[in-house]
Structures are given as C-alpha cells and as structure tokens.
Amino acid sequence: MTISQEELDAQSLATLRQYFGYEDFRPGQGALIRAILGGRDVLGVMPTGSGKSLCYQIPSLLLHGLTIVISPLISLMKDQVDGANEIGIPAAFINGSQSIDEQEDVFAAANAGRVRLLYVAPERLETQRFVNFATHADIALVAVDEAHCVSQWGQDFRSSYLGIGDFIDALPDRPTLAAFTATATERVRRDIIQMLGLRDPQVVVTGFDRTNLYFDILKLGTRDKANWIARYVAEHADESGIIYCATRKQTEELADTINALVPQLRAVSGAASPSSSPIAVAYHAGLPPAQRERAQRDFVTDAVPLVVATNAFGMGIDKSNVRYVIHHNMPESIEAYYQEAGRAGRDGEPSRCTLLWNESDIVTRRRLLDNGGANERLTEDEQEQVRRWKRHLLDAMVGYCRTTECLHRYMTRYFGEDGEMPAGAHCVGGCVNCDSTFSTTDVSRIARTISMCVHDLGQSYGSGKIVAVLRGSQAKDVLDRGLDHVPTFGRLADVSQSTVRDVLNQMVSDGFLTITEGRLPIVMFGARAAETIDPAFHYEMKSITRPKPVRPARQSNPALEPTTFGGGHGGTDEALFERLRGLRLDIAREIGKPPYIVFSDRSLRDMATRRPHTDDEFLEVSGVGASKLSKYGERFMQAIADFEE
Ligand code: ADP
Ligand code: MG
Ligand code: ZN
C-alpha cells in the first residue's frame, strides 16, 4: 500500500502542529521532509537557526523504522534528546560516556520500537557493538547533522566523519540518507555529497540572510576592545551572549576583566546591585573536560549569561535565546564568522552580532596561515593548495571588515545568492553600514610614498621611524642616523601622523608590506609591493561615521512583522514576559534541564502577547504542542491569570 503525496504532506503538517506547536513549515523544511518520506536522499543547506532538526525529527515519527542521527558533539546530545522527549518524540543517545549495560538498554529499546530517534557520535559507528546493533536493526533513515565536518575544505573537519559512508555501505538494507549543514560553499557541498555517498540527493538551499540579526563591525585598537566589551555587557546584563576570542589565554583574561569591570559599571549606572555570581565564564579546549562541561552547562541553563570562548565552543549549541555574539578578533573566514555569529537569535528574536577588528588582527591571521601547522595526511602540493584556498577565504573576511556595502548583502552574495536583495532595498535585519555614512579617501599618493620610504630605508626600520622620516621629524635619532638625507624625508609633512600610520597598517594587512616578528619589528616589502610603483596604482581608505548612540538590538528591526516585534514589547507585556521567564527558570530547575527546552524566548513573548486562558488558546502559542500543553499549560495560564489580577 502506498500513501499519496497529499496524505504524506498532510501527515507532516499535522505532526508539526501536534508535536512542535508550529503553524507552518519554514522555507525548505516541507520539501526536505517530503523527499525523505519518499525515500530519497537529501542535502539540506540551511542557516543556523532555520530549523534543520525538525527535518529529520518529523520523519522519525512518521517512518516505520528507526532514525539515526549522527551528531558531532557528545556533550550536547543529552540536550538534544531532552528537547525531543519534551515534545513527545521518543529519543535516546549512544555515546562513549555510557556503560555497556546502558548502551544495551538503549539498543533494546530501539529494537522494541520504544526509541524512534537515536543520536550517535560518529566515533561509535566504528565500534563492533554499534555495527552489530545496526546490522540487525530496522533503520529507515540516517541523518547526518553538521555534515560539513566531512570536508577538508571546511573549518570543522573531523576524521571520524569519513567513516560514515562505509558504515552506510555495510548495512544490509540501505536506509535513506539525509545530510544537513549551515555551510554553503559549493566546494563543501560537493564534498558532502561525495564523501557521504548521497545518491541523487534532493538538494535544498534556503536563504542565507538571517533577517533577525543586526550586523555591526567596529574597528578598535587592541587595548580598547576589553573596555568596549565590558561596557556592552554591562548595558545588556539581562541578556545572554557569547564572546569569541582568538586564543585560549584571551578568553580567560577577558572573562576576568568582565567579571571585575561589569559590576562596577553597573553600580555606577545605578543598576540593580551586582550579585556575587560571575557574569562571564571562559571556555576553550585546553580546560579540563569537567570544567568545560560545567561552563557549557552554566551557560545553557542561564546560570551565567555570558561565555567567553575560542571557536571550540558552540557547534551544536541549540540555546535559542543568545541575544548577542561579539567577536573580539577577526575570524579566519566568512564561513566561520557566519556560523559563530549565527548562534545569536536562533529563536528568531532580534539579536546583535558585533565584529571587533583592527589591522593587527589581519596580520596575525595571515601569519598563522603562512606558518600554520602542516597536515600530514596531505602532500606538499595539496598543502599549498589548501593554504592558497585559506588565503582566499581570509581575503573575503578582510573584505567584510572593509566594505561599505550592506553587510547582509555582502554575506548573502558570498554564499552565492546574488540578486537576493535588490539594489537600493534596505536590509531587513539592519547593519552598521546601512546606518552609517562613509567617506572614502584616495590615499594612493600616501601609500606610494610609504612604499618608496621603505625602499629608501633599505627595509631595515620599524614603522615608527618610517612615519617620523616621512613627516620630516627633527628627532635626534633621526638626524643622528642621517635619515634626513633620504629622498622621501618630509614628503608627507602635510599628512597627519595617525593617517600615515593607518595607511601603513592597511598596507600591511593588504600584503603590500610585511612586518617581521620579534622584539624590534621591521617593515619590509610584501608580496604586492611592486603594484605601488605601477602608475595606475590606486588605493583607498574608508572612514565611517557610526550611528549614535548604539541602538539596542530589540529596537533595530522595524521592518519585521509587527505582531512579533512591534509595539507590544514595552510596558505590561514586558513585565509579563519577565514573570513567565521566572516561571520557566523555576520549572527548568525542577526538571534539571535548560530553560530553553521548556519554552523558547519566542514562545514566551508570544504567550505574553496572547495571554491564553484556555487549553485551545494555549495551543495557539507558537511552540506549544500537545506535550507542552499537558506538561506546563496549567502553570503558565495560572501565572498569566495571577499577573492580570
Ligand atoms: P538549526 O539546526 O537549523 O540551527 P534548529 O533545528 O535548532 O535549527 O531550530 C531552531 C529553532 O527554530 C528551534 O527553536 C526550532 O524549534 C524553531 N523552529 C524550527 N522549525 C520551525 C517552524 N516551522 N516554525 C517555527 N519555529 C521553528
Ligand atoms: Mg542544528
Ligand atoms: Zn544593511
């Protein structure tokens, strides 16, 4: 007996409403679920927060066999499983932290049909125990989450992902294979299809523009970054955020600074008396596992609002109410930035992504790339190829820092969606470039003269001396060394010292010059130095007048639908929202799970606006399905009634 397509569609929609409490599918979900239910392999390329999980969770309820989800992060599996169980999907996980008995229990439950959705770490696929189970189980679907981990060309390559294809091939009956990723470059996409062995997959790529995110970039001196961040955190103390740093040491230092500064800043501004618990917790791969897990848990359960982390943090974190992500340094690629920044606002509420950068960030990145650790699995040639590719990725990231174009547009274009946003249209989520005014200055003459001066000085002086010579300094050690006799001496006397410095720095990060490492850094020619001699050489620098004051994320999004984001956020709704948030936290503590698993911020906002009093009204709230109604309906409706009195 075959079921018609219409019937399948109707069943998926009914499941969406009954279990998840959402009214309609988001872009891409319907098509992916339809293909999976029809037995076709799929590749879903959708941005973070767009709802990829649902694309295999709904089939897990409708298909006859088991659904296996391969997911890279063991520590987060428990949350994913809790989340599924909360809405009534029988789910479990298998990972190395369980005893053999525990694993056998899970296998037995899966074989008996008491578990429909089974999360496993990729490493498990290679164990005999799991292979035994899988060969005899009735597996309908294997979903590979974060599928870009299979690609060398991505940031998050994991060799354990390479075994997935073999695992599937070894199964007696080939299940449907579904791969999901938020990384969209063509190269990674091709790798996923090939390495996982997807067969004639239905590929669905949805819009990469995250319209609830406000993108900000800010050029700041290295020493000013910590203060800026502390001030931002103090002004957003009730919000949850992530700060990404380039090094482990920075994460710890910055977390300390924040914990020391923010209570003071808040006390000065007359905000609520600072509590003794820390505001920020550091996270990086060098911490002992227990401490790392604790940091993650504290963050996910809202026990601390802020995590300061290296890029080791975040993949698979489904915390939906992250209101801001700040990058303390420029990441290595747009992919990395998009993925990390995209951890803000998964619930669709307005959120802010801020990138702090300066020229020395760029120089550091280039240096890391050139001296980067070799990968023994690759030949010399391949390594050079990878390096070239990474340079190309880095250039695009530098372009993002420098562009005066709409940042949403820059990103969607990068991900190959040219034409997505018509020229002249205002970007929906908002960005600093759309809100600012720019002037670009032609600095060709300055750049050319700097280059000549580096030549005059025989590539053997630091940037301080170069600037001094160009501006015709009468300082003793300039004169003592006879530097006042070089041809470029005083040539830029008409230009301010800071401008000469800025142009020089920009030339370094653009590869016209390089600065040697060591105690006395020397400015030398970079790979592009020859271009500056070309008569057609043209070089620009932009300066920006930013909007003032920096608007909070919540108000930065006028173009979004009014029912969710408009007026209703002030006054009583806000007070009720806070009340509901308190109740959510109580319940989360009672059941020992993260608050967002009880309800997302978005659900609570919708609840505060609708103020349901009956079961039917409660079911109308976005994110409320049958399971949540029966578990929490009464308490939340009681809280609303109490509030109204
Ligand atoms: P991804 O894995 O793509 O980053 P998730 O699967 O974690 O995203 O989903 C992000 C959020 O969006 C979750 O809170 C999820 O419940 C919600 N969501 C998913 N699909 C829908 C939908 N059709 N309508 C409303 N919310 C949805
Ligand atoms: Mg996901
Ligand atoms: Zn814009």
UniProtKB/TrEMBL annotation:
EC number, UniProt record: 5.6.2.4
Residues annotated as domain HRDC: 570-645
Record carries keyword Transcription: no
Ranges where the Helicase C-terminal domain occurs: 225-394
Domain Helicase ATP-binding: 33-202
Location of region: Disordered: 548-568
Reactions this protein catalyses: Couples ATP hydrolysis with the unwinding of duplex DNA by translocating in the 3'-5' direction
Gene Ontology terms: cellular component: bacterial nucleoid; cytoplasm; replisome
SUPFAM superfamilies, alphabetized: HRDC-like, P-loop containing nucleoside triphosphate hydrolases, Winged helix' DNA-binding domain
Name used for this protein in its record: DNA helicase RecQ
